[in-house]
Amino acid sequence: MFTGLYYHRLEAKGRLAIPQAFREGLASGGVITSGLDGCLFLFPSSYWQKFSEKLASLPLTNPAARNLTRLLVQSAVNLDLDGQGRTLIPEYLRNQANLKKQVVVAGSLTRIEIWDQELYHQHLDLIAQTISDGDALASLAI
């Protein structure tokens, strides 16, 4: 389970240090892909395998299912950590998530989200407004 929030710098060559706290959960590998809401997703390999099977079981005739599969699968790359816990984030993924120098690496239970720091805080502000309206919480059955 991934929890917590870390601020990191994206190196000039596109390498990002994955926080030490998350590396144990990625010991068997992982997959970086396009995310939702403007971020990238980093899934541990075990979860990605199960998730991929669910995507493959979605009806081919469902346009939303096809689009979600395209978004997540076609941009996916395997996580390749070096000895210092850094991985290269391909340019097309950096561009897609508008990653600049300052990034946020945040745990989201089953995945890690990688955000441009400024966009992350803008998104959090939007979430705070939505939650304060009460509508978002009403739809959750917790």
UniProtKB/TrEMBL annotation:
It is found in: Cytoplasm, Nucleoid. The keyword Nuclease does not apply. Its main location: cytoplasm. Residues 5-47, 76-119 form the SpoVT-AbrB domain. It holds the Pfam family MraZ. One of its GO terms (biological process) is negative regulation of DNA-templated transcription initiation. GO terms for cellular component: cytoplasm; nucleoid. GO terms for molecular function: DNA-binding transcription factor activity; transcription cis-regulatory region binding. CDD domains: MraZ_C, MraZ_N. Keywords: Cytoplasm, DNA-binding, Repeat, Transcription, Transcription regulation. Transmembrane segments: none annotated. NCBIfam families: division/cell wall cluster transcriptional repressor MraZ. Belongs to the MraZ family. HAMAP family: MraZ. Forms oligomers. PANTHER family: TRANSCRIPTIONAL REGULATOR MRAZ. This is Transcriptional regulator MraZ.
